[in-house]
Design brief:
By secondary structure, the chain is of the alpha/beta class. The chain has 7 helices and 8 strands. The protein has a single domain, classed as 3-Layer(aba) Sandwich (Rossmann fold). Helix 2 packs across helix 3. The radius of gyration is 15 Å and the shape is globular.
Length: 196
Amino acid sequence: MTEMTFAQRWAGEGRRLPYYEAGSGETIVAIVGDGELPTRAHALLAERRRVIVFTMTADVGSPQEAARRIGAAATALGIERFDLMGEGAGAAAAVWLALVPEADIGSVVLAAPDDLPDEAFHDLKRPALVLSGTKDGFDAGDRWRTLLPDCHFMFVYDAGSAIGAERPEALAFIAREFFERRDLFLVSRENGRVFP
């Protein structure tokens, strides 16, 4: 397949938010850190789904404000239901967005989350998967299991905090499986094993 190319667009009213979009079908909203662009992982996800990437720039505000603005932008774009992915510094805004009860969000993937609000994380009721790179250390799993006992946790081998850039195929594969299969994602339909 040809790798998807992302187009930059603007959403919302007043202080409009820039976003990047590629693909078609069911929507994945991804929130990434300041200055980050869509990665190859996003392009791989866009081969089967519509992927919209928002960047946590300084003018977006706090994670709570960013979540509110991104939620409003998604509504303005006509997106009724979506899966949610937060990466690095974008994970905190993703958690706040996932906590909005009226938002129709399927599943949540947090890749190498940075500065998550502990007090909010306990209230997350949607299916969630937290990914951490093995280069970031193996103690991360204990923290996530304490904060959210019902979340799934997985290490991505040979990756640090930039999983989407360092292991794009692994991130795209794991996220796609989790979005489509939730609790059954650990065993791939394609070959019977998790991504190496």
